[in-house]
Amino acid sequence: MTDAPTCLYRFFDADGHLLYVGITKNPASRLSEHLAGKPWAALVGNIRLTWFQSRKEAMDAERAAIMLDRPKHNVALTAHECSEGNAHMELIDSVYAFCARTGMSATTFGKLSVGDPNLVRQLASGKRQALPRTEARIRAFMQSYTPEVPQ
């Protein structure tokens, strides 16, 4: 069986919040199933489709979207399941937890930790892997960070 182009689909609410993300080779059929059978279907305000050359590429993008945006209605594949057994995803989980705890944006985190505002996005999308030295810098930054206190 040859790998065929695969579609990543995203359902957004009217305010632009990601409700659900998935992949399929037949978006018309799959989207119809979701819209007819899911209790959250009435919340859908926008649908975006992105095609990938292979199922693996689409799966990687789906995992990245789940990690980055944490869609409310993805239950079969959650951010936690995306990270199980994967040291790379564990690092990304740690970064997202740090950002949530400190209120720091991913862009600011990248700038402050390694001098690259694209760091987190690239790590989460799989376009970049953290070398051991970079991972050590990221972890050291998270461990030593002290938020500024307004005076």
Structure description:
- The protein folds into 2 domains: 72 residues, GIY-YIG endonuclease, CATH 3.40.1440; 58 residues.
- It has 7 helices and 3 strands.
- The protein starts with 5 loop residues before the first strand and ends in a 7-residue tail after the last helix.
- The chain is 50% helix and 16% strand.
- It is globular, with a radius of gyration of 17 Å.
- The chain is α+β, with helices and mostly antiparallel strands.
- The protein has a 3-stranded antiparallel β-sheet.
List the helices and strands and how they pair.
Layout lengths: L5 E8 L4 E7 L2 H11 L6 E9 L2 H15 L9 H5 L3 H16 L3 H9 L4 H7 L6 H13 L7
Antiparallel strand pairs: 1-2, 1-3
**Rg, nearest Å:** 17 Å
Helix content: 40-55%
Let me know the largest β-sheet. 3 strands, antiparallel
Major beta sheet, strand line-up:
2-1-3
Shape category: globular
Sketch the topology as an H/E string, one letter per element. EEHEHHHHHH
Q: Pick out the low-confidence regions.
A: none
Care to count the β-strands?
3
Determine the strand fraction and express it as a percent band: 15-25%
Structural class: alpha+beta
The CATH topology of the largest domain comes to GIY-YIG endonuclease
- How many helices does DSSP assign? 7
Task: Tell me the CATH superfamily of the largest domain.
Answer: GIY-YIG endonuclease
Report the CATH architecture of the largest domain: 3-Layer(aba) Sandwich
How many domains, in number, for the residues?
Answer: 2
Mean pLDDT: 83
